[in-house]
Amino acid sequence: MAETMIKVENVHRRFRNVQAVGGLSFSCAANSVVGFIGANGAGKTTTMRMMVTLDNPDHGLIEMAGYDTLAHPREVRNLVGWMPDHYGAYPNMDVLDYMDFFARAYHLRGTKRRARIDEVMDFTELNRLAERPCQTLSKGEKQRLCLGRTLLSDPKVLILDEPAAGLDPKARLEFKNLVRQLKQMGKTLFISSHILSELGEMCDSLLFIDAGRLVHHGDADSLTNGSVEGLVLRILTKGAPEKLQQFIEQHEQMAVRENLPKGASVNFVIEDGGNVEDSLHELLQTLLAHGIEVYDFHREPKRLEDAFVDMLTIKKN
Ligand code: ATP
To answer: Of all protein residues, whose CA lies closest to atom 27 belonging to ligand 1?
Structure first.
């Protein structure tokens, strides 16, 4: 079994009357890329700050590579690189000065410091920006600088808060490539976002939180293939669509997403423990047995965003 790199167990964190995190538990394998997804205010930053020892849980346990963040904060800090969702302004620094400043803060000395800065600037393609004042960088360049700063200490685990926020498609692609390369280097990456499509393709698994609690942990496929919150089916009939619509109303596993001129697009939830193929085969047989003249029975891929919203709706009902 894969080694566990991140373990979060029944973690709570309250700020006065706001329960930011309320009993959150999950674990992440070493050398995996994990997306941490939730709406604004869901508790992502609060959780990540506790993972990197900038804040403490009121209750519960967080371990990084087996080190308890409360008992062994120093070991955790040596393991983990933290990229916050905004980086401080350093108006009088150029890119190289900025990197040098942080390399010193990481206690890198002499030729070792210079070599590490070169290596990271090469990897993040900051070389050509070396003499640019930090405040003149574009959003994407600033994100690369922030990632570069995080990589200086060569952390095993990277905790990145909204790193792709506001990036244009090209910068997002470059970021995705960096993530891929970092994974190949053996790192574990934990990346937050409130935009699912930013993370779906680059992550081995996705953690969804809502109001400080875990609502789902799986890969992107487990969401879009409907095993969690239902499939989307497009059913067209030769006869009157009302017959199909009546059938849907009478079956609680089904709900209309959209009525179509010759049928409907529907959500179909598979019963607990049910198998997708068997359930679909049975549904088609039942439709035909009810005299519904189905001529098109088609499973539609779900957009990740839709799948997530559906899942939240189902969990709340
Ligand atoms: P976003 O996507 O907007 O960054 P998030 O998922 O990162 O949101 P958090 O920043 O963790 O959410 O906030 C979770 C909840 O805790 C919010 O209601 C927030 O207002 C509250 N909160 C966070 N930090 C504090 C604090 N220091 N004092 C009071 N409330 C806080």
So the answer is: 15
Q: Which amino acid is at 41?
A: G
Ligand 1 contacts CB of residue 188 (under 6 A): no
DSSP letter for 95, please: H
Residue nearest to atom 19 of ligand 1 (CA): 41
Domains and CATH numbers, the chain: 4-224 (3.40.50.300), 231-301 (3.30.70)
What span, in angstroms and rounded, lies between the C-alpha atoms of 149 and 143? 10
Beta strands in 109-242 (DSSP E): 157-160, 188-193, 205-210, 213-218, 231-237
pLDDT class for 202, splitting at 50, 70, 90?
Answer: confident
Q: Whose CA is nearest to atom 31 of ligand 1?
A: 15
pLDDT at 127 over 70: yes
Residue listed under structure tokens 């009302």: 242
- Closest residue by Cα to atom 4, ligand 1, is 40
Cβ of 84 closer than 6 Å to ligand 1, yes or no, is: no
pTM of the model as a whole = 0.79
Quick check: CB of 158 below 6 Å from ligand 1? no
- DSSP 8-state symbol, 77: H
Rounded Cα–Cα distance for residues 60 and 43 (Å): 15
Residue 228, pLDDT > 70, answer: no
**CA 156 – CA 174 distance, rounded (Å):** 21
Q: Are 99 and 117 in contact (CB under 8 A)?
A: yes
Looking from the CA of residue 46, the nearest atom of ligand 1 is 11
* Ligand 1 atom closest to residue 16's alpha carbon, by position in its atom list: 29
In this predicted model, what pLDDT tens digit does every residue of 30-49 receive, in sequence order?
999 999 988 888 999 999 99
Contacts of 217 (CB under 8 A, 6+ apart): 26, 205, 206, 207, 208
List CB contacts of 41: < 8 A, sequence separation 6 or more. none
